[in-house]
Structure formats: structure tokens, C-alpha cells
Specification:
The chain is mostly helical. Helices cover 74% and strands 6% of the residues. A three-stranded mixed sheet has the order 1-3-2.
Length: 229
């Protein structure tokens, strides 16, 4: 009989796959809808930055699909090749969302600052955490403490996943408010942009919940190891 934690992990994997598939489907659908104003993702991004008085952030193209992101280190809005050049509801949504992160950076949004402050620690943790978790599982019959150390480090990645949620939702909120106020999209296009960003946000929600489920799995192994040691 399966343990409840294994069922939770399986459900998390299935839901993650379904959400990713839905997200790709939505972006493909909305990428086919041309914007009435004819602006490209690059032009929309540059316009949003200008409207927010941001002059030190560059909008550049990056390879891949759904690889869009804002890099606070070099102050660049990185748009995937399709979003950069496309003139669609999906491109408008993504371009404005990534600029939402640039606005967060420029206005010192507290949750973005908190997440950015965690990055150096997570970079260091990522080097040792997998080793501790794998070694901890193999050594569980002898001592639970290596796994315990791995659990502590993994908890930081789970915290990071949950800290990311308000950052992503806030960026989408800023994006939708701006494209609506600026008249970038029609009411129909706005609904598409909102739907696309909602599904994108759900990938972060599922990732956070999956991380929590994995953390609980390792915690259960650790507690079981302590009882048997």
C-alpha cells in the first residue's frame, strides 16, 4: 500500500505536467492573435519601461521558447525570440510581465529584494544539498543526521519557491494594469493576456507545492530514521 506522501508526490508530478502542457497550449493559441495596435513585444517592453521612468534597463532577445526573464544583475529584460518579435496578445502579456519585474527592482519591491538576497545562499546550497540528500538516504540505517542536514538545506529551496509567488503575481498585476491603462490591448486581448499570465503563475504555484511535497518526503524519511536509530 502506498504511503500518503508518495501519493502526494505523484499527484504533484501529474499536476505539474498538466499545467505546463496547458501553459504551452495557451501561449500557442494567443500567439496566433495579432495585436490590434501592431506593437511587438520589444516595443511594448520599451514603452512600459519608459512610462515608468526606467532608462537604465535594456530589452534584449534570448534563445528558446518561454525563456523570458528579467535579470536584475545586468538590468536586462530578456525576451524569447518569439515574444521579442511577435505582435500578439501572448507577447504583450509576457513583455509587460517581465517589465513588471524591472519596475519592482526600480521601486525596491520588498519581496523581490528578499528573493534576490536569497540567491547567493541558494547557489552555495545547491552544491552540497544533492550530495547530502543522496548520502543521507544511503546512510539512513546508520545515522539520520546527514539526511537531516540535507533537509535543512532543501527547506531553503522550498522557502525560495514560496517567496517567488508574490513576486510573480505582483509582476503580472503591474503588467495587466499598465497594458489596460495604456490601451495596449482591446478588452478581448486583455482577457487573453490575463489568462496567459494566470497559467504562467500556476507553474510557480505547482513548483512551490511540489517542492513542499518533496520536503515533506525527506522529512518523513528523516523522522523514520531517527526512530530506528
Amino acid at each position: 500500500m502506498f504511503s500518503p506522501i508518495y501519493i502526494i508526490l505523484l499527484v504533484a508530478m501529474v499536476v505539474s505536467w498538466l499545467v505546463q502542457r496547458r501553459l504551452k497550449s495557451k501561449f500557442e493559441e494567443y500567439s496566433q492573435v495579432g495585436l490590434q495596435n501592431g506593437l511587438s513585444g520589444k516595443q511594448i517592453a520599451e514603452l512600459m519601461l519608459a512610462d515608468n521612468g526606467i532608462t537604465d534597463v535594456r530589452v534584449i532577445s534570448t534563445e528558446g521558447r518561454l525563456t523570458d526573464h528579467y535579470n536584475p544583475a545586468d538590468k536586462t529584460v530578456n525576451l524569447s525570440e518569439a515574444v521579442y518579435a511577435e505582435r500578439s496578445a501572448a507577447a504583450a502579456a509576457v513583455a509587460a510581465h517581465e517589465c513588471g519585474h524591472a519596475v519592482q527592482h526600480a521601486t525596491a519591491y520588498n519581496m523581490l529584494q528578499f528573493r534576490s538576497a536569497m540567491v547567493p545562499a541558494l547557489s552555495a546550497v545547491s552544491r552540497f544539498m544533492p550530495i547530502l540528500l543522496i548520502a543521507g538516504v544511503f546512510l539512513l540505517n546508520r545515522t539520520p543526521w546527514p539526511l537531516g542536514a540535507g533537509v535543512v538545506l532543501f527547506s531553503l529551496t522550498t522557502l525560495f519557491a514560496f517567496v517567488t509567488l508574490p513576486v510573480e503575481f505582483d509582476a503580472s498585476k503591474r503588467a495587466l494594469a499598465w497594458i489596460d491603462k495604456r490601451g495596449i490591448v482591446t478588452p478581448q486581448e486583455h482577457a487573453m493576456a490575463k489568462d496567459a499570465l494566470w497559467w504562467a503563475a500556476m507553474t510557480y504555484v505547482v513548483a512551490a507545492l511540489s517542492s513542499l511535497a518533496t520536503l515533506l518526503y525527506y522529512v518523513s524519511l528523516f523522522l523514520g530514521g531517527r526512530r530506528n536509530s
